[in-house]
Design goal:
By secondary structure, the chain is α/β, with parallel strands linked by helices. Helix content is 47%, strand content 15%. The strands form 2 sheets. It has an 8-stranded mixed beta sheet with strand order 1-2-4-3-5-6-9-10, sandwiched between helices. It has a two-stranded antiparallel sheet with strand order 7-8. Helix 5 packs across helix 6 (161-168) and helix 7 crosses helix 12.
């Protein structure tokens, strides 16, 4: 063998070794994120995936808050070494609250990967209410968790993402903030729920929104009706519709005053023009609350790393709201739009498969929290 051939063979062996070692390192580096992503996409894989992740325990805890302590689930790795960081997960509008199955699965998986995961119960969100008190509650949770972990992150889902962004704005002690399926402007969300229309960057989209969400929207708006009697009457109608959207509430609706009727007129709008007109006719207290609870102006004040993701087929909050949030960062982050996902899961298997690496990247960013 000539010297040239020998050198070429040695170079080939060296390159092959580098490729193998690099591939192995990347697989080890990305393995937890790959496993977590696989189980999130296919929950039946969790028993199979358990050996690749650590054990996790769940505890019921209470977090101090002036009005009353907040119940929370604490997921932590079963190991002698303390977790390197903690992550707070904030649920959306769900009667299951912190025990919503998909959220509990995510918390369990992230706990298996080595994080201390805290999932508080927000009674307002569980009752389809968004009052602003949630921002204060989240602030109290962050302050409490920071005493137990060197680095803290927080992620909000759906309507829980808005209070998360508002609570995290201006804080230097939150390393990572996530908004998944969240919103920028509640007025835009109201128009979408009523009409299916949403816009961004000069492009208008019209989708099929989820009909049941009309009554979730009414539930969100009811506390901001200023007249006590009108508010109670509207609440009884909305509660009946949340239990059974087909319930006949016509007699009760006839007793409503102007502000109560304004809320019903909005949720029953059928096109964008009408919805925007009805939005402007809401009582001033409701319009002020919607503006105060919209996190668009707070996003530039967030100092930790910001992750934004949304399902393209979301029937509850349009994906353009996440594009709007990302735009407000001035290029600091981009929204990850997942083509095969809606509000809570996959809609199209092949598109979901195409989303896998973007999902892995998101999960890895959370797992690598420092």
């Amino acid at each position: 063998m000539t010297g040239v051939k020998r050198r070429r063979r040695l170079v080939g062996v060296a390159v092959g070794a580098i490729v193998i070692i690099t591939t192995a390192v990347l697989l080890v580096r990305w393995l937890p994120a790959l496993v977590v992503t696989a189980v999130l996409a296919a929950p039946r894989l969790e028993p199979w995936a358990a050996p690749w992740l650590g054990d996790v325990a769940r505890e019921d805890v209470e977090i101090p808050f002036p009005a009353k302590p907040l119940a929370a689930d604490l997921y932590h790795p079963v190991r002698s070494r303390p977790p390197r960081s903690a992550l707070v997960l904030v649920h959306g509008l769900s009667t299951d609250g912190r025990r919503q199955p998909d959220l509990a699965r995510l918390a369990r998986l992230l706990g298996r990967s080595g994080l201390l995961v805290v999932v508080p119960q927000f009674d307002g969100l569980a009752a389809f209410r968004l009052s602003g008190r949630e921002v204060e509650e989240i602030g109290a949770v962050l302050g409490h968790v920071q005493r137990h972990a060197p680095a803290v992150g927080i992620a909000g889902f759906s309507f829980g993402a808005g209070p998360v962004l508002l609570a995290a704005a201006g804080r230097n002690d939150v390393a990572l903030v996530g908004s998944f399926g969240g919103y920028a402007d509640l007025g835009n969300v109201g128009v979408f729920i009523a009409s299916g229309a949403h816009t961004f960057g000069g492009t208008r989209y019209v989708e099929r929104s989820e009909p049941y969400n009309r009554w979730k929207l009414a539930s969100l708006l009811t506390p901001f009706v200023p007249d006590d009697v009108d508010r109670v009457r509207l609440a009884s109608i909305v509660d009946a519709k949340l239990r059974d959207p087909g319930a006949d509430t016509s007699v009760a609706e006839g007793t409503l005053a102007r502000n109560g009727r304004a809320v019903l007129s909005l949720v029953r709008s059928r096109d964008e023009t009408e919805a925007r007109r009805r939005l402007a006719e809401l009582p001033a207290s409701a319009r002020a609350a919607l503006e105060k609870l919209s996190p668009l102006s707070a996003v530039p004040k967030i100092r930790g790393r910001l992750l934004i993701a949304h399902g393209a087929a979301d029937p509850s909050i349009p994906f353009t709201e996440s594009l709007r949030l990302a735009e407000a960062t001035g290029g600091r982050t981009r929204a990850v739009i997942l083509g095969g996902f809606h509000h809570t899961g996959a809609t199209d298997l092949w598109r979901a498969i195409a989303d896998v690496w973007r999902l892995v990247g998101l999960v890895d960013s959370v797992i690598a929290l420092r």
